[in-house]
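Go through this chain.

——
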Amino acid sequence: MSKKENYPAHYPQERPPLEALLHYISFLLRYKYFIFGVTSFFAVSVVVFSLISIRLPPEKSYMPNYFESNAVLIINQDTVSGFDSILTTLGVSPDMAAEGLNYGDLAMNVLHSRPFLDNIVNRLNIAEKYNIDENVRTKSRRLLIQNSNIEFDMRTGTLQISYQDIDPVFARDVVQTMVDNLQEWFQRWEGTSTQQELSTVRDKINEVSVEIQRLEEEIKAFQKEYGVLSIDQLAEAQAERLSDLRSQLIQTEVEIKNYAGFSNIEDQAIIQLQAQRDSLQELIRQIEEGAGSGSHKLPSLEELPELAIDFTHLQMSHQLQMRIYQNLMEQYEVQKLSVTASSVFNVLEPPEIPEEKTGPMRGELCIKVTLVGFIASILLAIFIELIKNIKNDPRKKKILKGEEV
């Protein structure tokens, strides 16, 4: 006996491929009106649905047209120092490593930071426009982020900011406000950083100026006290004066000896010469011991080396402070010029009012819904055919009811 002869009579035998294909085609032809009707119903419904959505005002439409405005910025690729502290001021947790991050990364964090979003929300009255009544701040931020698309391309250094809304003018205004606020933030941040640096240099300049003034006052006091411009002049003048006095003293003593050879001791000329000698000796002693001379003080010979060292130190300190002052002034002027010399980003494409909608794609929706209707009609026809077969076959009815065959 063959294998097929062992099968029960009710067991369905395998059909050839062509016969199976013809069977399915005949099945579809039997339900062609049903399939066509269901598919047409889906197609007409979605077309009517789309037409009504177009006719309704955007504020009331269940599927309004959306318009997207965008701007493209070219970002400076330099790295940012002090990134953690900047993120902290933005209210952003700096979980990422700050090393190697550039202005593009900083701009992305600024655009998603809470203070920045709150500024946009307040300027454009987001809560009022979208009728947000509860959790106004949180929902306004979330809605602004959901409708925005912010992307930074590290390779080209471009930052794209876009916003989607049913109002094309409002979409443009949101992007423009974001760009303006980002520029203001960077200008304020750069200005604050630069002003802090300028203030530090300016304070140091004032400090050095005070020190220079103090040293100059000490030098002036020294020159006024001793009546000379430098310690070298003082030593030279004092040496010359001592030399003159000693020469006069020697000459006076010679004259006394000469007179003493042929005059008595009571001679008036000898008395005057002796008095002159004593005066010269006293004056020499006073100069050597540092006695005063007129309105200027004359230091002693022992004090001259120490005074020379002190005055030299004053001059060296003054020259050093002057060099520091000159370097600080050059640095200060360079920093003032660099305030306007650099810019973090430039606007490559400013936002504009979009003329064409970006969504929804109603044509694609109609095609997809029609295709779904076609597939659904076939599945429904198969289900109907299955029900008919069960009703016309008592054995299958028993199986469906759980009765033994």
